[in-house]
Amino acid sequence: MKHEQPPLTSGGAVPPPGEGQHAVPPAPAPAGGAVRRRSAGLSGKLLLLTVLFVMLSEVFVYVPSVANFRSTWLKDKLTTAGVAAAVLSETNTIAPRLQEELMRVTGAVAISLTHKGRRSLIAMSGLPEEIRYVIDMEEETPWSAIRDSVGVLFSDGSGLMRVSQPLPMGSSAGDDVQKVDIVLPVAMLRKDMLAFSGRILGLTLIISVITASLVYLALRWMFVRPLQRLSASMARFAEDPEDTARIIVPGGRDDEIGDAEKRLADMQRGLSRALHQKQRLADLGLAVSKINHDLRNLLASAQLFMERIEHVPDPTVKRLVPKILATLDRAVGYTQAVMAYGKAREEPPRRRLIRLERVVSDVAELLALAEHPGIEFESRVAEGFELEADPEQLFRVLVNLCRNAVQAMEAGADAAHVCRLTIEAALIEGECLIRVRDTGPGIPPAVRAGLFRAFQSGAKNGGTGLGLAIALEIVRAHGGRLVLEDAGPGATFCIQLPQRAAPEA
Questions:
Q1: What pTM does this model have?
Q2: Membrane-spanning residues where (predicted)?
Q3: Which domain does 449 fall in, by range?
């Protein structure tokens, strides 16, 4: 759409398209802000979003619709004026009454025809005003139609527009093509476009309400209600997790909601079983602690009796009493370990910079590794290797790991078997790695799953199975990890301790 300033010529001819000054049409005013609604819960948000998206889709439909209405409106005016003008122009003169009737029917201010390159004024009424828009229907594109439609809607409706297009009955060869050119008030087009917009708006509101309601009800039935049911089931189950009657019953759906219901039911059943089992274990632990206390007193009394019997000058007694005392000592140690594990909680580590070879030396001295007749002990810790850790707790970890390694190699040792225990350390990317490696029989796959659980890993060697559990607890308190590595024969445990400072090796 083009803007043009000059009025109609005094000779009655209409200026050809393209003449005059051009101006940019007024920009569309911003649409009014949407009213915000505060809604509690998923249902209200879903309803609001549904209405907004439906209205947005209707806007995308409205804009091309109003542009098409404008183009059709202009073409109808041009066709009516062109056909009537062509018929009337066959005579040399047109009666004023016919001119007035033609102007009334078309609503035009001026009508002219172009034939063989000549423009002739057919009819004109009123005083000429400013021609603001020049439109050639042949050159109009869908995008320009949309742009000009918005410009007319948001204009003040003043001024005139000149619209032209070829007549359907005109010749297609050169100057023989007839062209109709009419001048129309902008206000008339704007009035009809506003009326059309009102009808579209009413229809849009009706469609939006119906569509939004159907979509909202469908989404609420398909998603919101099942999610509310899941949420209510979680809240009800949280009040009493051990009550199996509170476990959700899946609705039988085969979609993601149904899968979520099934998974929630499985999780609730598993949690209920776990809580029930923990309660039973707690009750069992209380009973065991009482029995263990009495058993320890009985074993202590039995030790005293055996120590007295040891002095009896009988060869059989002399031979059996040490074995019985060793068995009693082991039983007392087992009961003490059980009580200690049940009561003790490891204190937070008091980390400080220590030399690792000193700790390894103390471990070797405590376990008499250097004097062991069947095991070679090798420390590959570099002299002066430093790390940040609690020395007492790290000592306990290494003692537990080395004792387990010694017991494993002693149990499966023979004359041809090389029994070697190695401790090595390295600092990699701010993490201290300490490896305890042995050449024993290794860890069977069936044992690895519960390797670090209390009372499980050490039963086959006559131990309590608490060493690895305690070691893991200490390492985790340091923020590290204790892992079993698959590195050659035997077993290799790796202690991974993060370093806050930068220890030197």
A1: 0.45
A2: 46-67, 200-219
A3: 352-498
